[in-house]
From TrEMBL:
Species this chain originates from: Clostridium tyrobutyricum DIVETGP
Assigned keywords, A-Z: Repeat
UniProt lineage: Bacteria, Bacillati, Bacillota, Clostridia, Eubacteriales
Pfam families: CAT_RBD, PRD
Classification via PROSITE patterns: PRD_2
GO MF, any single term: RNA binding
Protein name as it appears in the record: Beta-glucoside bgl operon antiterminator, BglG family
SMART domains: CAT_RBD
GO biological process: regulation of DNA-templated transcription
């Protein structure tokens, strides 16, 4: 590997024999080194292989302004998240998350307190990501001696949720999605004038259905006569649940397919039953 660019003593851009470029980090890896010299590979501690060119270029720009210890810390948190969540994360997480943590620490050092109005919903709907966020706060405190507020764990969770899978124009922003799930649950509560059992399996299934429902928005729906037939039966049997579904459809300001109407009605019927 040959050094192509030096950010500081601990972070450089290298080029391998196949002319692929990577960002690598290691204590003193660029000390008394110049571009064009060979890299002491024994000093490499972290390697950033970003396949998306745009993400890679933006990440390199970040390295010019953000302390390398922050970048290294964020790398550790992201790798921890990948292992715990067992998911693939979009390359942009290295850019967006690192930039966010840098700004969060700046605000903290300035004595500015920030809050996340959706923290309760994030705890409920994305418990795994929120737990990773809490663990990330421990990482930050251990490495930097800064105790960020719990709301920051919710912010971190949102970054992890957004980074799962490929970015698509059809996907609703996760912050907006979380608010919409909350609003839909409230529509059900007020329609039935009940408190939903958040520990029930039907509640968990309903929330899971809504999460994937939002991911399907904007995709071409298939028309199925069987769904129309079943929907007519469900409409007749579960009138209140069907009317509640219509309220949700009005709130969403979209026309749902027969399939979506069917499953949404069934989930509403299940989540509102106490037996």
């Amino acid at each position: 590997m040959i050094i192509k660019k030096i950010f500081n003593n601990n972070a450089i851009v290298v080029k391998d024999s196949d002319k692929h470029e990577y960002v690598v980090m290691g204590c003193g890896i660029a000390f008394k080194k110049s571009p064009g010299e060979k890299v002491d590979e024994s000093l490499i501690e972290k390697t950033f292989i970003l396949k998306q060119k745009d993400a890679s270029e933006k990440f390199k720009l970040l390295l010019e302004d953000i302390p390398s210890e922050y970048v290294s810390l964020c790398y550790d948190i992201i790798e921890y998240a990948k292992n715990i969540l067992d998911v693939e994360l979009n390359d942009y997480i290295y850019v967006t998350f690192t930039d966010h943590i840098n700004n969060a620490i700046k605000l903290f050092d300035s004595g500015i307190s920030t809050s996340n109005p959706l923290i309760w919903e994030i705890k409920k709907f994305y418990p795994k990501e929120f737990k990773v966020g809490l663990k990330a706060l421990e990482f930050i405190e251990d490495e930097l001696g800064k105790q960020l507020p719990e709301d920051e764990a919710a912010n971190i969770a949102l970054h992890l949720i957004n980074a799962q899978g490929n970015v698509s124009n059809n996907k609703i922003d996760i912050t907006r999605q979380t608010k919409m799930v909350r609003d839909i649950l409230n529509i059900v509560k007020y329609t039935y004038n009940i408190v939903l059992d958040e520990k029930s399996i039907n509640y968990e299934r309903f929330v899971t259905h809504l999460r994937f429902f939002f991911q399907r928005l904007g995709q071409k729906e298939r028309e199925d006569s069987e769904d129309d037939f079943l929907l007519r039966q469900v409409k007749a049997k579960y009138k209140k649940a069907y009317n509640c579904m219509l309220r949700i459809q009005k709130y969403l300001e979209i026309s749902l397919s027969s399939e979506e109407q069917l499953y949404l009605t069934v989930h509403i019927q299940r989540v509102t039953q106490r037996n």
